[in-house]
Design a protein that fits this description.
- By secondary structure, this protein is mainly α.
- Helix content is 49%, strand content 6%.
- Strand 1 and strand 2 form a beta hairpin.
- 13% of the residues are buried.
């Protein structure tokens, strides 16, 4: 299984904002720290905001911050919101045209594997990514 870059960026934004709880951050600042496209990040932030993970305020005193406590942000919820689908192979996609879909067990196995992945992620929150050691190391990389 592979998550899209879009979801990867979403998780990075949330991590960055969790490390900055006392202030608003700009999209440009986050893009610079991660060395990624500001334009792409704007789309990510828009969806994170619509989903209620990020509070976004426009203007001079604006910026981004988490909309809720990191312990309330479930990683599976973020992934399910940001991923367009989990169609790793054709038979898992809406436009499935695979001629062996009926007798092939791959579809069932991949659905089960995806469910297992999401079940593990449902047990994790953004706060779980930021234990004391991880937080310190991430701050050294991103905040300094």
């Amino acid at each position: 299984m592979r998550l899209t870059q879009y979801t990867d960026y979403s998780l990075r934004v949330l991590i960055y904002l969790a490390l900055q709880p006392d202030r608003r951050c700009s999209i440009q600042e986050i893009a610079d720290k991660y060395e990624i496209s500001k334009n792409h990040l704007m789309k990510v932030v828009r969806q994170l905001s619509s989903a209620g993970f990020v509070d976004s305020v426009r203007g001079v005193r604006g910026g981004l911050r988490l909309a809720v406590d990191p312990a309330e942000i479930n990683l599976a919820a973020v992934i399910e919101e940001m991923e367009p689908d989990f169609g790793m192979v054709e038979c898992l996609r809406a436009d499935n045209q695979c001629v062996i879909t009926g007798p092939c067990k791959l579809q069932s196995m991949l659905r089960q594997a995806t469910q297992a992945f999401l079940d593990v992620m449902r047990e994790q929150t953004l706060a779980d990514l930021l234990g004391p050691q991880e937080r310190e190391r991430l701050e050294m990389i991103l905040i300094s």
